[in-house]
Amino acid sequence: MIRIETQRLVLVQPHLRHLPAFTAFKASDRAARIGWDEPEYLAWREFTSIAGHWQLYDCGPFVAETPDGRPVGTFGGWLQAGAEEPELKWTLWSDDDEGRGLAQEAASAARDWHLGDAGWTSAVSYINPANTRSAALARRLGCEKDGQEVYPSGTTVDVWRHPVRAA
Amino acid sequence: MMIPTLTTERLTLGPFTMAHYEAFAAFASGERSTHLGGPSTDPRDAWDSCMIHLGHWAARGYGGFFATETATGAPAGRIAIWHPITLDEPELSWVIFDGYEGRGLAAEGAIAVRDWAARQGLPALASYIASDNDRSISLARKLGCVKEGQHTYPSGKTVDVWRHPMGAA
Fold it and tell me: Does residue B38 carry a pLDDT above 90?
């Protein structure tokens, strides 16, 4: 089992013990809910998809926990057949965890691991322009805006390119 | 999580492969995917579905079997035990990819997965089928299922619950 420790957090692979907190996030205003699906179902789908991603690629979104085991969000990589570039994604589940740099700490550690241990050579994040907090985090992580992408659904997102350290 | 591989006369049922993603994405973009929430031409949707059925194994210890036509190596469908946290019991679902319908492959795969489920100690499975999904209903009948009521999703959509006989252990 992979385990990454940062100053204030521990990043671990997702486990069903995280599902209740993730479901609460999906039920909150923080998550952009699409359609009629109940948060329990959305959380289940996303959680199992993350587990499948880890199984297939041996990398993916980590769950960041406080030292006492409270999960604060997901941070890590996403690969997809046919996708042009490896993606880094994040979610922060509670308002209470905003504003203290926790997301930056976790996202930075997850990025280092993917660009290091997992062997990635580049990474981008796709961020809805309306999601200003996420864009601010991308900036703090040293990302630069690199065009836009239009999803087949019609949603346009900004492409934020992550810096890659020289080997 | 080691995902088992089952073999039938014509099918190999096992873990997800990229070839199955391509075939599933083609299926998901067509009208036959209506009863699975499709059609969708967004490859992200098809990809998520594949990852979900793969990750289901880690969560439950059972999940989706991806079917390959053994003789040709071609992806033929997906026979899945589907048990999200919002359902009280595991469901047996089936998808046959374009070009592999009408040859009894779904029944062949479903029986193998149903028997495997019985060997794992799972209860008699249910399949949730829309009342206008004639092809799936005729397959359920062929598999010996009995209609035993209805299930209503939070969307308001109501489906018939078809109860399978216990698989051969």
Answer: no
Distance from CA of B162 to the nearest CA of A (A): 22
User: Is A152 inside any structural domain?
Assistant: no
pLDDT tens column, B85-140 = 999 999 999 999 999 999 999 999 999 999 999 999 999 999 999 999 999 999 99
Distance CA A88, CA A100 (A): 21
Reading the block at residue B56, the tokens are: 């289901």
Whether A65 is in a domain gets the answer yes
Q: How high is the pLDDT of residue A34?
A: 55
Residue A35: per-residue pLDDT: 60
Return the CATH number of the domain spanning residue range B6-123: 3.40.630.30
Nearest to B43 among A38, A48, A82 (CB): A82
Least Cα distance to B115 among B166, B60, B62, B57 occurs for B166
- Average pLDDT, 10 consecutive residues per value, chain A (167 residues): 95 94 91 72 93 95 97 97 90 94 98 96 95 96 96 90 80
- Chain B residues closer than 8 Å to A48 by CB: 51-53, 55-56, 58-59, 84
In a domain, A128, yes or no: no
Please tell me the total count of domains within chain A. 1
Tokens describing residue B120: 């794992």
What pTM did the predictor assign? 0.90
Q: Which residues pair with A4 in a beta bridge?
A: A11
Domain extent at residue A56: 3-122
Helices (H), chain B: 18-28, 43-60, 105-119, 134-142
What CATH number corresponds to the domain at position A78? Answer: 3.40.630.30
Please indicate, yes or no, if residue A107 is contained in any of the structural domains: yes
- Domain ranges for chain B, please list them: 6-123
> Between chains, do A52 and B50 touch, taking CB under 8 Å as contact?
yes
3-state secondary structure (DSSP) of residue A72: strand
Instruction: Give B162's DSSP letter.
Output: E
